[in-house]
Every structure is written in C-alpha cells, then in structure tokens.
Amino acid sequence: MRARRLRARVTAALVLAALLVPALAGCLRVQASMGLSSNDRVSGRIVAAVIPENSADEGPQFTAPEALATQVRIEPYNQDGYVGSEIYFDDLNFGEVEQLSQLSEQAQGLFELKFQRNGDLVSLNGRVDLETLAPHGSDVQLSVAFPARVAKTNGTREGDAVVSWKLPAGEVSTVRAEVGYADPNTRSFAGWAGIVGGITLAVAAVVAALAYLYRNPPASGAPAGFSLRRWWDQVKNDA
C-alpha cells in the first residue's frame, strides 16, 4: 500500500512537472502566413504571442517601420491563453518584405526573409535563429502561398503552390523555395509593345490603303463605278 501511494505521488509529481515545463520554458507562438501575387507583391499576417507571466504581461510588442506605416497594421492578440501582437501587411514589394525584420529591435538578426527575382525565377530564402528559445512549449510556423507551382523547396508542400515550415526551437533553420512565373515588368512591356505594335500596324494599314486609293487614277472616259479614291475624297470633304 505504501509503495502504491509512493508510486502515485511520483506519477502525480511527474505529471505536474510536465505541465509546468512549458510555463517555465516560456511558451511562444509565432504563426506567419503570407501570399505572393503574380505582380511580385506580398501580403500576409504574423502572430507573435506568449503565455503571460502575470496580468500585466502584454506579450511581444512591435512598431511598424516608418517607411511601411501605411502598409502595416498591428493589433493586440489575446487567444487561447496567449497574448501578444497580430501584424497585418499588404502589398509589399520584395525590398519592403525585408524591412519587416525592423518590427522589433530584439528580433533583428533572428528572422531574415528575402524574395529575389532572376528573370522568370523567384526564390525565397530565409534564416530563422531560435537557438536561444527553449525547445519545449514553442510553436513557430511559416506558410507561403505562391502564384504558381513550386519547383523546389525544403519545406512541406501543402499543395502545388503552398509550402509550410515548422521551425524547431533551439535550432537555426533555413527556408528555401523556388517558383517560376513571368516577370510582371516584362508582361507590362509586352502589353505596351503589343498596343504600340497594333497602332503601328493600323497606321501602316491606313497608309497602304491611301497608297492603294491613289495608285492609278481612272482612265479618261472610264465608266463611273465605285471608287475608293472618290469615297475617301468624299469623306475628307464631309469632315
């Protein structure tokens, strides 16, 4: 009986210790999701929160970089016992995505994410340093939706165009993905070139038609039938 009670106490102590480990380690929740459009623009949401130590603990707080003040919105986060911040960003170019690391001075150097374009190939490269984070009780995830099928990645495919990464605490992780789609600047130029080409062809057609109208005047005494030249002269006279 005494041995049974001792085993019960040991079991209860182990269960209690298991429940306390996340609190002692400092539970962290980071959930980042973003979408890349075919125009090379990035929008998304980041949640950064912890289980508070006391009622005054508001969790991680951030400040939008001045250059992104109109594109970044920060709101308080309080869900499932976690408190912190919820960050929304919209229509960022690749250079502006890198500036998200300036949301917190403490976070600089810990989280680096970079989109780069080389012709029709876009690559995502990142480095997340969580070495100082306790390995228990932390949930750090990143999910990215691309505008086309992902060719290469070291993440988990959630579909042809969506990749996720679960980033372990206590380690330095890398993020890699490659996707191919047309450069929006090239597409814009191609569209403009098409319009200009269409205008050029139209002008050439008009010039050719006018040249055709006046190529050979009708012979004297020829019967009066339909004449493109007379029709054009009539149009000019009526204008």
Q: How is this structure best described in words?
A:
By secondary structure, this protein is an alpha+beta fold. The chain folds into two domains: 27-182; 185-238, no CATH class. It contains four helices and eleven strands; from the N terminus they run H-E-E-E-E-H-E-E-E-E-E-E-E-H-H. It has helices at residues 2-25, 94-98, 184-213, 228-238, and strands at residues 28-36, 42-50, 72-79, 82-92, 111-118, 121-129, 138-145, 150-153, 156-157, 162-166, 172-180. The protein has a seven-stranded mixed β-sheet with strand order 3-4-2-1-7-10-9. Strand 5 and strand 6 form a beta hairpin. The longest helix has 30 residues, at 184-213. Mean pLDDT is 76; it is low at 1-25, 189-195 and 197-207. The chain crosses the membrane at residues 189-214. InterPro entries: LppM. Keywords: Membrane, Signal, Transmembrane, Transmembrane helix. Residues 29-181 form the LppM domain. Residues 1-25 form the signal peptide.
Name the poorly predicted regions.
1-25, 189-195, 197-207
Task: For the record, give the distance between the C-alpha atoms at the N and C termini, rounded to a whole number.
Answer: 115 Å
Helical region count?
A: 4
Helix content: 25-40%
Number of strands: 11
Secondary-structure class:
alpha+beta
Q: How many individual domains? A: 2
Could you describe the largest sheet, including whether it forms a barrel? 7 strands, mixed
**What's the shape?**
globular
